[in-house]
Specification:
six-stranded parallel sheet; alpha/beta; two-stranded antiparallel sheet
Length: about 350
C-alpha cells in the first residue's frame, strides 16, 4: 500500500465513524516491510487530529522479525499497540514459521518479543494452533508466560485438516490451560488467556458478551493495497471482482453491498438453531466461517467441536474460582473498574521503559 492510499483510508475512517475515534490496524502480510508508509500514515493522522478532523488509535500485527528499537520508540511516542505472532516453543514456531532459507526463526523472534515486552508489557501474543502444533500448546503457553507475556490470544486454525485424534489432543491441551488458569489466578497474576476469558465472560455477563460478538462489516472495513474495500481481512482473497468487494476508496462504500452482506451474516446457521451453547459460541464470526468453509452461512465442524470441548472446561474453572471467592478472579471479572485500576497500578513501571530500550 502506498501513502496516498493510506491517507485516503484515514479520511474514509473518519467519515464512517462520524466524529468518533477511529481505530487503524496495520496488518499484512508483514506491515513492517513498509514502515515508511506506517510512519507517514501516523504522522498524517496526527496532523488531522491537530486540524480538528478527528482522533485515531493504532494497532499493528507483525511476525516480529523487523521489529527494532526505532520502531518501538515510534510506537511509544504515538501510542501504537503492537501484537506479535509466535506459535509457541521452538518446535511449534518452526513447524510453520521457518526463515526463507529453512532455518529456525525461534531465537530471532524470541529476542524481538523480549524487546517488545520491555516497551509494551501488555503486548499481545497471537498463537495459531494447527494439528501439527497442538501437542505443544500448553508447554508453549507456559514458556511464553515465563518470558513475561501476559496477554495471549490463541486461535485454532479451523481450515487445517483436523482429525478426531487431533481434537482429542486439543481437548487435553484445553485442560492443561485450565490448570494454568487456576494456578496463575491463585498466584494473583495479571494475565489474559483467550479463549478462556471470552467463555467466562459469556457466562458472567451474557449481554456484554453478545454485544461484543462479531458483526460482519458493522465495526470494521478492510482496505487492500489498491484501495478496494472488503468486509474483513480474509475476504481480500476474493478479489475486487468478487461479491465481497464493497467499494473503493475513491468512490466510497457501496452501501447496498454492505447491507446485503451484513444481512446474510446475521442469518442463524442451521446446525446452531437447536444448539444449547449457540449464544456462547464463536459461530457468528463470518470471516472465520468463510475462511474455513467458503460460506459465511456455514460454521466449521472443527469450530463446533472445539467450542463444545472448551465451554465445560472454562465453566469448571470459573465455578472453582468463584466458589473459592478468589479475590483476583472476582476483581477481574466482576469489577467494571478493574481495567482502569490495573492500568494505574502498572504505570508505576513506566519509568523503566526508556532504559530497557536503550540496551
Amino acid at each position: 500500500m502506498n501513502r496516498e492510499t493510506a491517507f485516503q483510508a484515514l479520511e474514509l475512517g473518519l467519515r464512517l465513524n462520524r466524529g468518533k475515534p477511529c481505530s487503524i490496524v496495520f496488518f499484512g502480510g508483514e506491515p513492517l516491510l513498509r514502515r515508511d508508509v506506517i510512519y507517514a500514515t501516523v504522522s498524517r493522522a496526527r496532523e488531522m487530529t491537530r486540524e480538528g478532523k478527528g482522533r485515531f488509535y493504532f494497532r499493528l500485527t507483525t511476525n516480529g522479525l523487523l521489529l527494532d528499537s526505532e520502531l518501538l520508540s515510534f510506537s511509544l511516542a504515538n501510542n501504537i499497540q503492537i501484537a506479535i505472532s509466535i506459535d509457541g516453543i521452538r518446535e511449534a514456531q518452526d513447524t510453520h514459521r521457518r526463515l526463507p532459507d529453512g532455518s529456525s526463526s525461534f531465537d530471532r523472534v524470541r529476542a524481538k518479543l523480549e524487546l517488545l515486552l520491555a516497551a509494551q508489557p501488555y503486548a499481545s501474543v497471537l498463537m495459531t494452533v494447527t494439528p501439527a502444533t497442538v501437542k505443544f500448546l500448553g508447554e508453549s503457553v507456559e514458556q511464553l508466560s515465563e518470558m513475561g507475556v501476559k496477554y495471549m490470544v490463541i486461535s485454532p486454525d479451523y481450515t487445517a485438516p483436523w482429525q478426531s485424534t487431533d481434537l482429542k489432543v486439543l481437548k487435553g491441551q484445553y485442560q492443561h490451560l485450565a490448570d494454568l488458569y487456576l494456578a496463575w489466578t491463585r498466584e494473583h497474576r495479571k494475565f489474559y488467556l483467550s479463549p478462556f476469558e471470552v467463555k467466562l465472560l459469556s457466562h458472567i455477563d451474557r449481554q456484554c458478551h453478545l454485544k461484543n460478538r462479531c458483526e460482519l462489516i458493522q465495526r470494521q472495513i478492510t482496505v487492500d493495497p489498491q484501495g478496494f474495500l472488503f468486509p474483513c481481512v480474509q475476504f481480500i482473497r476474493g478479489g475486487p471482482q468478487s461479491s465481497w468487494c464493497i467499494g473503493h476508496l475513491k468512490q466510497g462504500v457501496d452501501e447496498a453491498a454492505r447491507s446485503r452482506i451484513h444481512a446474510r451474516s446475521t442469518i442463524e446457521k442451521e446446525p446452531c438453531r437447536t444448539c444449547a451453547i449457540r449464544d456462547r459460541c464463536n459461530n457468528t464470526c463470518s470471516c472465520l466461517n468463510w475462511h474455513a468453509t467458503g460460506s459465511i452461512e456455514t460454521v466449521s465442524p472443527v469450530l463446533c467441536r472445539s467450542e463444545q470441548m472448551l465451554l465445560p472446561i472454562a465453566d469448571r474453572v470459573g465455578k472453582i474460582l468463584y466458589e473459592e471467592r478468589n479475590e483476583t478472579f472476582v476483581h477481574k471479572h466482576y469489577n467494571p473498574a478493574y481495567p482502569v485500576l490495573s492500568l494505574l497500578e502498572d504505570t508505576l513501571c513506566v519509568g523503566q521503559i526508556p532504559k530497557m530500550l536503550s540496551r
